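Input record (one chain):
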Amino acid sequence: MSDALSATRDRVFVGIVFVSFAYFFFTVHDAAVKILVVAIPVWQILFFRSVTILAGCGLSFGRNVYGDAWRSPVFRPMLFRSFLIFASWLCFYTAARDLQLAELTTIYFAAPIIVTVLSVLILKEKVPLSRWLAVVIGFVGVYFACNPASLGFSRPVLLVLTAAFGWGLAIVLMRKIALQEKSVVQMVLNNGFFLITAGVPSLFMWQMPSWWQAMLLVVTGAVAGFAQFTLYEGMKRAPASVIAPFEYTSLVWAFVLGYALWSDVPRPEVVVGAVLIVGAGLLTIVGEHRRQKRFEKI
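The corresponding structure, as predicted from the sequence alone:
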């Protein structure tokens, strides 16, 4: 019995590691998109990204993966989830034109709270007090770091909030689907939907990229592919409410990249926020460890 519980605990911790890597890759991806969206239409960025990911899936796992995706039993629910993610990213990318990377990331962090709430309503997960505290502490850290209230409810802010809700719902659905299908099949279905949906508008809004923009588009797709794969793998190993607070680690990476790319110097409040965010993640790990220890004693 204790061996089974230990295996479950290890599986959850591996899931946390996968998800942490995923959010690092997603932040790198967001920074690249912020650079590209100044000159390249959002639809075209999504199209290039999907082509790159689909090509990478075929090269890494073989051509049969496309047939497996077409015959997948989760084909229909994946289409709905893909629509949610597509709408969320479209809102997020559009807002990236007008907001700083730190502001963009901060407002978007309504998503982990949404994930935790929806995991109770939809997945029927039992969320202990430690996880609720981790989510709240993480969000307080985000607020200290950027103070999104000062931005007001402008159109870009509302777009990011819409993206956060759509992503939160998609994450919960992802948890249900991740247990039923391989990660690479989910990636093919997801990006196949994006390819078709973004392809038609791209024809009418096409902007010829320069050589460095073309390279950045391909790199952006490759990074997004790594992010998606590690996120799906993490979702298979840990409950949605456990991994939700670790999305806050993206904020730390956002400030690091903001300084490296745009010379944004973090304010003292950012340091306080970062400490709270890291503390939220540690609280989740400690709470999960203690909870498993209690089960072992029963």
